[in-house]
Specification:
Layout (H helix, E strand, L loop, with lengths): L3 E3 L5 E3 L3 E9 L23 E3 L17 E4 L4 E4 L20 E3 L1 E3 L77 E3 L6 E3 L66 E7 L3 E4 L3 E8 L2 E16 L3 E3 L1 E5 L19 E3 L18 E3 L4 E4 L13 E3 L2 E3 L84 E3 L6 E3 L21 H4 L45 E7 L4 E3 L3 E8 L2 E15 L1
Antiparallel strand pairs: 1-2, 3-4, 3-5, 3-11, 6-14, 7-8, 9-10, 11-14, 12-14, 13-14, 15-18, 16-17, 16-24, 19-20, 19-27, 20-21, 22-23, 24-27, 25-27, 26-27
């Protein structure tokens, strides 16, 4: 069903499947010419071809008339290629490389590479490369016109080389003492701000003595010529030409011309449509007035458009819990960070307010990762949904392996007291997702401190009775339709004589956090794992001779609640189930990394 927009008089009008879009397509700039000992400096690279439909007047490449806006359809994939800049060559006999073409319905031609050595004309391109001494023949520009030709060398004496052509001007001519400047680029307001692009590269002087002898890059990203060195590169995503290389008097060695700047494709279209970029393309979208503006900066692939069909979705994201510390008398692992948008009040990790409910759209891939619990002396792994990341829980402190510190994380790992009073690990501060681990008040207790949980700090050892620290409490969420506790801290280990009841469970929230080990030979007194898919911390290990190793943290979870009118698809690599709760569907994703999408 088509989305609708509401007219001022209350009627609804279908959004059409076709629409007009403006564009700016700039190819990669050509590289500047190189040089070697005893040779003339190279010439500037030409700017990438510049073709646009946006604006008014003769502001297309070569100061020609604007092209027509494109008529696009939501049922069609459109090819996009961003042209790379030409690569500079350290050679007195090989011209600079031309840039690559950029494509979006129209093709803009890469800028021409700059000339080198003697009597060498720059390459043909969207804008042509500059010419090296002493011939007075310009490079050519392609048809249809997209820019200007390169500049000419000086006619005598020191023979400065020509600058590369720009989108709005010829490359500057060299003189007897200076290389030619790059041709100027063109300004466009297609993004909402005036930006200059597609300037030509500067030409080099013969045996320059300072930068005053070198050609300056054309406005709009052209690179300037080097002084006894390589040329400067054209600016990325402007299609600017690269600057030429030069040698100083008596200087040995070969230098490459500057690389051309990569091109860009910019598309401007009504806000009533959304864009999807395929794998292989890099870009971003911003809003300017009544339009979306998508800037694509790299790659090759397809773009397609759709009519937005937004809906609200709530989430619960819990990261993997941290591992308990290894002997001696180690701290419990911290819970994985807990972030949620569901419910009301301070029920997100660290007793923070719930986040705003996000708006999603159909037909878009959203990234999901379910963080594994920490093991082998490590923090838990992060869990991710779209742009929201919950941080893995910190590891518990221990006398060996993990080291005498507690790990930071969504909730921090617990401290220990083997030889020193070790503080608990800090919690992640931005955004807050849990609490710090417990800290020991003094040494000699032979007890560890509990890992922090989503709902409270891990409880440190009690010096008067030497009881091991409890894991911090988790927090309950009803996002699935039932109240479930997540993200409790792991319990700490201690000496058996002061432990209390054999097999006592001191993990947070009545045992979803792993319990700490006890100094006995009873297998029931080993450290236990944090509960799976709660992101709870593991229990701490006890002693080299009795249950030495801390237990792993529990894996995290991603829970999504959304209208029952939507259908979710999980990509390969994700494991999950979907159930109905009232008017909503609830998807619980328990493992993996991949993408989800909705219809």
């Amino acid at each position: 069903m088509l989305s609708k927009r509401i007219l001022f008089f209350g009627a609804a009008e279908p959004v059409p499947s076709t629409f007009n879009a403006d564009f700016l397509v700039i190819a990669g700039g050509g590289s500047g010419g190189g040089c070697a000992f005893g040779n003339w400096g190279g010439s500037g690279g030409g700017a990438g071809g510049y073709r646009t439909s946006f604006g008014s007047g003769n502001i297309n490449g070569g100061n020609t008339s604007l092209l027509s806006a494109l008529s696009l359809d939501i049922s069609t994939n459109y090819s996009v290629t961003i042209g790379a800049g030409g690569t500079g060559v350290a050679s007195p006999s090989t011209k600079g490389n031309s840039g690559s073409n950029s494509v979006f319905s129209v093709t803009s031609t890469g800028g021409g590479g700059g000339g080198v050595g003697q009597d060498d004309v720059g390459r043909t391109g969207g804008s042509g490369g500059g010419t090296s001494p002493t011939t007075q023949t310009r490079s050519t520009r392609v048809s249809p016109i997209q820019g200007f030709e390169g500049g000419l060398p000086g006619s005598g004496g020191s023979y400065g080389s020509g600058g590369g052509g720009g989108a709005s001007a010829l490359g500057g001519n060299g003189s007897n003492s200076k290389g030619g400047d790059g041709g100027a680029g063109l300004a466009s307001l297609i993004t909402g701000s005036s930006v200059l692009r597609a300037g030509g590269g500067g030409g080099a002087a013969y045996k320059p003595t300072s930068s005053a002898n070198s050609g300056i890059g054309g406005t709009g990203g052209g690179g300037s010529a080097g002084v006894g060195n390589v040329g400067f590169a054209g600016t990325v995503n402007t299609g600017g030409g690269g600057g030429a290389a030069s040698n100083l008097d008596g200087q040995s060695g070969s230098f490459a011309g500057g690389n051309g700047g990569a091109g860009v494709v910019i598309i401007r279209y009504p806000k009533s449509y959304s864009i999807t970029l395929s794998a292989g393309l890099t870009g971003s979208t911003a809003i300017d007035g009544a339009d979306n503006v998508t800037t694509i900066t790299a790659g090759t692939g397809n773009v397609s458009f759709r009519i937005p069909n937004p809906f609200s979705l709530d989430y619960l994201i819990v990261a993997g819990g941290g591992v308990g510390g290894n002997f001696y008398y180690a701290g419990g692992g911290g819970a994985g960070g807990m972030l949620t948008s569901y419910g009301t009040g301070n029920i997100s990790g660290g007793l923070q307010p719930v986040a705003a409910t996000p708006t999603l759209d159909v037909g878009i891939n959203y990234t999901v990762t379910v963080g594994a619990g920490g093991g082998g002396a490590s923090t838990g792994n992060n869990s991710v949904f779209n742009t929201v990341t919950s941080t893995g829980g910190g590891y518990g402190a221990g006398g060996t392996s993990v080291g005498a510190v507690a790990g930071t994380g969504g909730s921090g790992g617990g401290g220990d007291d083997y030889g020193a009073a070790i503080s608990g690990g800090a919690r992640t501060s931005s955004p807050i997702q849990g609490f710090a681990g417990g800290s020991n008040p003094q040494t000699g207790n032979r007890t560890g401190s509990g890992g922090g949980g989503a709902g409270s700090t891990g409880i440190g050892s009690n010096a008067s009775v030497s009881l091991a620290g409890l894991g911090g409490d988790g927090l309950a969420s009803s996002i699935t339709g039932s109240s479930v506790v997540y993200a409790a801290g792991g319990g700490a280990a201690q000496n058996a004589t002061n432990f209390g009841v054999v097999g006592q469970d001191n993990g947070g929230s009545s045992g979803i956090g792993g319990k700490g080990a006890r100094y006995t030979t009873n297998s029931l007194d080993a450290a236990s794992l944090g509960n799976i898919n709660t992101g709870s911390g593991g229990g701490g290990g006890c002693h080299a001779l009795r249950h030495p190793y801390g237990a792993g943290g529990g894996a995290g979870v991603v829970v999504l609640r959304y209208p029952s009118s939507r259908t979710i698809t999980l990509s390969a690599g994700l494991t999950g189930t979907t159930a109905q709760d009232g008017t909503d569907k609830v998807t619980v994703i328990t493992a993996g990394t991949g993408n989800i999408s909705f219809t």
